[in-house]
Design a protein that fits this description.
With 530 residues, this protein is α/β, with parallel strands linked by helices. The chain is built from twelve helices and 19 strands.
């Protein structure tokens, strides 16, 4: 109770400070890097040049115990709703093109709340939360405009993945007859396109209104593509070609961030802006033979963590994130309190001076964390539900069925139920290009984990328990020696599972009506029955 009281007092103090200096709440710029590994940005000690991100992180607050979901769609849904994906069926893998579902239209999104409070709301980049109907697209979900692609991945230059996908939705509820296919984008690098569009929006912004900009870059998601001018600066420092191209992709993103911050300064918005940077999941890494979708490895690294994208290991769900703002009282510091992607929804509302609740009455899982970020208060979170999925991990060769997978963190403890997912290896240090563990040590560690089982719903199920504070690399499975903790966390997961809805993910074929050949070879919403 004392912790919550302290946070409330800090929040009140912050609100009074903002209001005393301005009648307008702060601007919020939310940048998301796609598939960024834990050990990729320069401020992690890598050889990749990210001077703008390094400067912003160094002069802001670095979130060291920050979690996301293991893949794209669930994390983006968490950002937008403040609710865990298991509550609305997006807990299993990513939304695949041509399937007739998306983020439930009953969910209230953060741009809707901010727009109602007077914010100008703009989205630029990758959407990946649904496009079966126009109602699922960004300008029907609270954004005043959208420029980018509706799907989950495509070529950086042709903007094709089966069909062409680059849209300009120039106004609220910009659907059929309003949404424009940007054919002129063909041949232009998406990172530069998105950064340029963000700069244009800032230049044209009415500065009497607060700005909310959501900027989920395509970078550094596969495929590995970048203009040679960005790659060649690493010819003498990074020998691995895949890592070298990846480094160029990240440097291009960093340059874009630099251009955006300069535009905010030129417009006179920077001093009253909260700038947030986040990964959407861990970096995809080379996997073991039992990982059938690990071909999206791009050269990223999650060193020293275990696992990567697609997994519930720390390398899949521990995200790089920081906040930079002149409203932060102790810049240049780190925060070690727990935080999750769902916390951005109430935190952004808190920054805007709004009550962090939803108009639909559906409970938030997110908690407002501005006091922790801006004043170094204690985190108001002690638990993170990393996932509850009744289907097998999509990276495993076994498809649906079995007991499913889940993971829960409470305090220092982290419980895995079922298969956390391949790849289950530890990333090597890219600077050394070798693992700090020998092949024998790796094999021994992997053999020693996942040996304890419990009976769940009549099925003998593997569980693993790690003390993340003492063992952040998840090397020492202590489930057998802490069965009381295992049972306590299992009881909590069992209770939460009763609140989950079945996954919407479909293993079947795409809807024939979504075929791009029926829509001038473009990805276009095709139904109003989804």
């Amino acid at each position: 109770m004392a912790q919550h009281t302290c946070s409330l007092l800090l929040l009140i103090g912050f609100a009074m400070t903002v209001r005393a200096g301005s009648d307008k709440p702060p601007n919020i710029v939310f940048v998301v890097a796609d598939d960024l590994g834990f050990h990729d940005v320069g401020f992690r000690g890598t050889r990749i040049k990210t001077p703008n991100l390094d400067s912003l992180a160094g002069g802001g607050v670095l979130l060291e115990q920050y979690y996301v979901q293991p893949v794209c769609t669930p994390s983006r849904a968490s950002f937008m709703t403040g609710r865990y994906p298991f509550r609305y069926g997006l807990q299993h893998y990513v939304l695949q093109g041509g399937h007739d579902y998306g983020l439930n239209l009953n969910e209230t999104l953060v741009p809707e709340k901010l727009k109602a409070a007077g914010y100008a709301t703009h989205a630029v980049g990758k959407w990946h939360l649904g496009m079966c109907s126009w109602q699922h697209t960004p300008t029907y979900r609270g954004f005043d405009s959208f420029y980018g692609f509706y799907g989950g991945g495509e070529d950086y230059y042709t903007h094709k993945h089966g069909g062409f996908d680059m849209r300009r939705d120039k106004q609220s509820q910009c659907g059929d007859g309003c949404s424009q296919v940007d054919w002129d984008a063909s041949g232009k690098y998406s990172t530069n396109l998105f950064a340029g569009e963000a700069v244009r929006i800032i230049q044209d912004h009415d500065a009497t209104k607060p700005l909310f900009m959501y900027l989920p870059f395509q970078a550094v998601h596969a495929p590995n593509e970048v203009p040679m001018s960005y790659e060649k600066q690493y010819n003498n420092t990074i020998s691995d070609r895949k890592r070298r191209i990846f480094a160029g992709m990240l440097s291009a993103l960093d340059e874009g961030v630099g251009n955006i911050t300069k535009a905010l300064m030129t417009k006179g918005l920077w001093d009253d802006t909260v700038f947030v940077f986040s990964a959407d999941n861990g970096g995809p890494i080379k996997g073991s033979s039992r990982c059938h979708i690990c071909g999206d490895a791009t050269g990223s690294s999650n060193y020293p963590l275990r696992g990567g994208k697609h997994t519930l290991w720390e390398g899949g769900v521990r995200g790089t994130a920081f906040v930079h703002s002149k409203l932060i009282s102790q810049p240049g510091t780190k925060r070690f309190g727990l935080m999750h992607a769902v916390d951005w929804f109430p935190t952004f509302l808190e920054i805007a001076g709004l009550q962090p609740n939803t108009s639909t009455g559906m409970p938030l899982d997110g908690v407002a964390q501005w006091a922790m970020i801006s004043e170094n208060a204690l985190s108001v979170r002690d638990e993170i539900v990393l996932n509850i999925d009744p289907l097998h991990n999509p990276a495993s060769p076994k498809k649906p069925g079995g007991g499913g997978d889940a993971a829960l963190r409470q305090g220092s403890w982290k419980l895995h139920v079922g298969d956390p997912g391949p790849p289950d290896i530890w990333s090597a240090d890219p600077a050394a290009n070798i693992s700090d563990l020998s092949e024998g040590e790796l094999a021994e560690l992997r053999q020693a984990t996942g040996q304890f089982t419990v009976m769940i719903a009549g099925t003998n199920t593997t569980v693993q328990l790690y003390n993340i504070t003492a063992d952040p690399r998840e090397m020492n499975d202590v489930a057998k020696d802490n069965q009381d903790v295992v049972q306590r966390l299992l009881s909590r997961l069992t209770a939460l599972q009763k609140e989950a809805v079945p996954p919407l993910f479909s293993f079947g074929p795409a809807d024939p009506q979504s075929d791009v050949k029926l829509h001038n070879n473009t990805w276009t919403p095709w139904t109003d029955k989804c």
